[in-house]
Amino acid sequence: MMTAWLRLSIPLVAAAVVAGCGGTVTQGNSGVPSFARTAPASSGDLLYVAHAKGESLESPGQLSIFTFPKGSLVGEFALSGSPTGVCADGAGNVWIVESEKYVWHAFEFAHGGNVPIAKIRIPNPNYASGCAIDPSSGDLAVFAGVDGSQGEGGRVDIWSGARAGEPAEYRLSFTPSAGAYDPSGNLFVDGYIGGSQSFYLDELAKGGTSFSNVVVERHTEFPGGVQWDGSYITVETGGLGRRASIYRLTVSNGRASVVGTTHPRDLDVGSYCLADGVVAGISGPYGLKVLLWPYPQGSAPTLLSRFKYTPRGLAISAGN
After folding, report:
1. Which distant-in-sequence residues (6+ apart) come within 8 Å of 43 by Cβ?
2. Mapped to the 3 state alphabet, what secondary structure does 139-192 carry?
3. What does the pLDDT look like over 159-209, one tens digit per residue?
4. How far apart are the C-alpha atoms of 125 and 64, rounded to whole Å?
5. Prior bond to 176 cis, omega within 30?
6. DSSP annotation of 165
């Protein structure tokens, strides 16, 4: 996602999201009082948008919650760290990856909740770009870059049952941007190598011990989000003056065939999530807006909210 905070502070990354997929807040919905509360247990789907009060990695974090897809503000509240990614499980629990003084954690929130119900320490990443939940097991995957002392590329840490403990570590030949599981528990992660920012895609098959490369049989540029849309794994790519494309893929024997393409007008190459025929994504010259598009048509969007600083991740929390 070629947005201001990414240009100024860290390498190109994107948050991984999955479909259902105190103090004054200065971002978004100007004039709406800031408050933190818990949504009613009977509430419907909610869209979580993680952002911060600045562009640096250590800027104070904020979380805005909207009804989905109507877009009414439910609440805004402070996070303990600066967010870099958001994901949700099928039960509506939301995980937020945060950095606080360069110590990394993933925090779990119940649907509509404003107080973490679980916390997992992420062991010494150079940068953690997001997360995904395995619907077949409840495992939590976090996508992490590594520094030079750990070699080249990146890694994926997976915690069994999304609970604290020693994660299983899987190395990647590239720096991960985003990832998502399919219903069978196969994990797909995209990313880039060095300054090239070319698109790479790997798969960790359910029960597998290592990632294998997947070749997308269509033009790719920058890596963006990865999502399960209910029928297909989808990946986003674009950049260098080209409009963003969301490819719907079928994957077999290391090759990904594109069975459909969506071009959401003005979608940045980065975070998006989708559910119930709607794509929510980040847009604008500096990525300061969250828009909603019909899916898979990808025609003219509607505005959900504007923010003062670039949102760093979003996810749909499934309601009851």
Report:
1. 67, 74, 111, 112, 319, 320
2. CEEEEEECCHHHCCCEEEEEEHHHCCCCCEEEEECCEEEEEEECCCCCEEEEEE
3. 999 999 999 999 999 999 999 999 999 999 999 997 777 899 999 999 999
4. 26
5. no
6. S
